[in-house]
Amino acid sequence: METHMIFETHAHYDDEAFEADQEEILNSMQECGIGRIVNACASIESLKDTELLMEKYPFVYGAFGIHPDDADKMTQETLDEIRKLCQLPKAVAVGEIGLDYYWHKEEAEHELQKKMFRAQMEIAREQKMPFMIHSREAAKDTLDIVKDYVRGGMYGGIIHCFSYAKEMAREYLDMGLYLGIGGVITFKNAKKLKEVVEYAPLSQIVLETDSPYLSPEPNRGKRNDSRNLIFVAREIAQIKGITEEEVIAVTEENAEKLLLSSSRTSVRLGA
What we know:
The protein is of the alpha/beta class. The chain has a single domain (6-260), classed as Metal-dependent hydrolases (TIM Barrel), CATH 3.20.20.140. It has helices at 22-27, 45-56, 76-85, 107-126, 139-152, 166-174, 191-199, 229-240, 244-260, and strands at residues 6-11, 34-40, 60-63, 91-100, 131-136, 157-159, 178-181, 205-207.
């Protein structure tokens, strides 16, 4: 019988929260049922750090991109660096990219974020890679930009840490995209997200932690890591009335198909 392992699609092991024991934690992953991990870049510094993690650990892959919080630090040189890193054999996506209006309230900030989001979506299209989207308090603008690109043809993507309602989930699912589901699904007050998970087909869900953030129950409030994904799989299984083994197997297949497949084809809206 084939053994399936959890595929962690979004973590930040280059974060300073892991400075003291990064090696110890990553070396324990395989025996804890974690098969593969995507380390997602956020800052400009994390581009190099993620490349080093990929080189050191056979099961760690990289997503290269800059988080909207750092849009004002980006230059043409940054975009060129992302493009170059996307050509590495273990680079699997452009991310995490998108829009975040939670801390950034000024229109000028929003415009700059949109410009850098589009520039990185261009790289994803050009490199024939999926994208990983971060969207906070920016539902409409994110959807408009993603729709615009998918309409012209993209290579799939994940809406990381999905946090909007079922209606918004439908928009992304109809585009053939995946929803990244993590620790928040285990929170008692996550009614909206539980409805989304119940509604979304398992074939369009992937597992993620966003480590070191968003630890699931029973470890809420503590530093998160990929070993906690079993609690996420368990909660999804409960919501959908299936086994956690099925959740692990199907989400692993989903992530492999999107992130590791060399036969990835372009998806177009309405195609």
